[in-house]
Amino acid sequence: MSIDTGGASTLRFKRVGIVGVGLIGGSFALALKTVKAAETVVGFGRSRSNLDVARKMGVIDQIAKGWDDIDGCDLILLAVPVGQLPEVMPVIGPRIGKDTVVTDAGSTKRDVVAYARAAFGRALPRFVPAHPIAGAEKSGAAAARPNLFAGKPVVITPIEETDPFAFKRVRATWQLTGARTVRMDVALHDMALAATSHLPHVLAFAMMNEIAERPQAEAMLSLTGGGFRDFTRIAASSPEMWRDICIANRDTLCTEIDAFSARLSRFRHWIATGDGAALEREFAAARTAREALNASLNAAARPRD
Amino acid sequence: MSIDTGGASTLRFKRVGIVGVGLIGGSFALALKTVKAAETVVGFGRSRSNLDVARKMGVIDQIAKGWDDIDGCDLILLAVPVGQLPEVMPVIGPRIGKDTVVTDAGSTKRDVVAYARAAFGRALPRFVPAHPIAGAEKSGAAAARPNLFAGKPVVITPIEETDPFAFKRVRATWQLTGARTVRMDVALHDMALAATSHLPHVLAFAMMNEIAERPQAEAMLSLTGGGFRDFTRIAASSPEMWRDICIANRDTLCTEIDAFSARLSRFRHWIATGDGAALEREFAAARTAREALNASLNAAARPRD
Asked: What's the pTM value of the predicted model, to 2 decimals?
C-alpha cells in the first residue's frame, strides 16, 4: 500500500492527543504506536480509572492534567460520544496549533461538521471528519486492540473548507491503522449509514418488542432459529448509543424510514392480492443483491487503499 | 427421554412412504433408519434423478412405481412443497390404511389443514400436521442427513378431528428423529411463524432492494459490516419458496405487517421529535428481550420432550 502523507516526509507525530480513550480512541493509539507513528500519546477523559487502565496497558503514555495538554499535540483524535462534542469542541478549538491536524470518530457527520464550524474558527481547515466503522460489543480502554481497524472501512468526509494537505495527512494516518479509507460527502455518508445501519437497528429493536410484548411471546420465541437470531442480533446493542445516533441523524433516518415503509406497503399489497409474480421478482432481485454483497464483502476483507 | 408411543408396543414401521424426498423428507427417512424404526422406506417424487440419488445414498430403499405403492405404508410423510398438496392429497387420501398415520412438513398449517379436510375423508383423524423448523440452505435428497432435526423444534398442530393415538404416534416418531416437539394450535403456529419468520424475511428482502435500486448502492454497501450482513442473510433465501409461504399465510402475514408498521410509525415519531427517553426505553426493552432469547436458545439446543 502506498500512502500519500500530504507532503510530510514521514508520518510520525510527536504528541498525539486522544480525547476519549475508549475502544475506538484506545485502539487508534495502539495502532499508531505499533507502527511507531506516535512518539507520545496523551489521553483525555472524564473517568480517571479508565485512563489509569489505559496507561497501565500502554495505550497512552500520559494522562492529561487538563485541556492545556492539548497544546503541543500535532494530531488530535476526538473519540468521545458525539453528544459530548458541543461541549468539548469549543474548548479545544482555540488550542489547535497551526500545524496540528484533528480528526474524529463520530458515527454521524452532518452534526459533527456543524459543531466544528461553530467551534473551530481558523483551525477548521485542519479538522478532517472521519467515521471508523468498527463497532464491537465491548467498550472502554480495556477493550482496545491494535488491529481493531484492520481491513475495516473508515469513511472520511472532508468539507469545502478542509485543507487538502490536512485531508491527506489524516487519511494516511487512518491507513496506518490498517483501515480501508473511503472518501465520501457528508450527506451521502449520513444517508448510507441511516439506510444500512441505523434503520436495520430500528427494525431489529421494533421486531423484538413487537414479539416480546405479546401474551404468546414465549411460545412464539420457542420456534425461532438461526435466521431470527441473526436478524435480531443487533437488537442487543447499547440503548443509549442508539438513542443518540437516531437523534443525531434524525432527519435522514426519518427519510429512510419513510422510503422503507413505502416499499413494505408495496410488498404487503402483493402479498394481500396473491401477486406471486411480483413477489418472486422482488425476492429474486434481493437475493441477487445479497449474493453480490457477500462476494464484495469477502473481497473487502483484504485491506486496500 | 421417555416417549409415549400412543399404545404401540414398539415404534417400528414396516413401510414408510416419503412423498417428496428432499432435504426434509430424506433426513426424516435417514433419522428413522438410524434408530431402526423403519423397515422399508419407499420414496415418491417427480424427479427420477433425485430418487436415484436417494436410493444410492441409502436414504430410501425403493423408488415408488406409482401411487399404488402408498398401499401398505403404515407411516406417510408429505414433504413436497405446500403448493403441491392440493394435487397430491386427493390421490393419497383414499389409499391411507386404517392403521396408517400421516404427517407433513409444511411451513404453514391453516392451508394444509384445509386441504386435508377436503381430501382425506375418513382418514382425516390419522393425519397429524407438523412443521419441522430446520431449514437449511441446501436442498434435495443429496443434502439429507440423519441429524438434521436434532434439537430442532417440530411444531405439531393436531385439529379437533385428530385421533389422540395418531397424535401420540406421530409425535413419538418426530421425537425419534431427535427433534424437540412443540404442540400448538394451528392459528397460533401460523401467527408465530408470520411474526418470527415470514415478516423478517419480507423485511430483509425489502431492505436489500431498497438499497440495491439506488444510484449510490455501491458506496452504501461498501460501508456495511457484520451487523448488516447478519440482518440481511435471510434475503438470500429461495424466492420461489418464500413467494409460496407469503401467499399461503397471506392473511396472518398482512396482520403482522400492519402491527409492525404501526410500531415503526411510533418509533419514527419519537425519532422525529427527538424523544430520547422513549427511544431509550424501547431499545432497552428490546435488548432485554434479545438477551433473554439468547439464554433460552442456548438451553433449547439440548433435546427435550
From this structure: 0.86
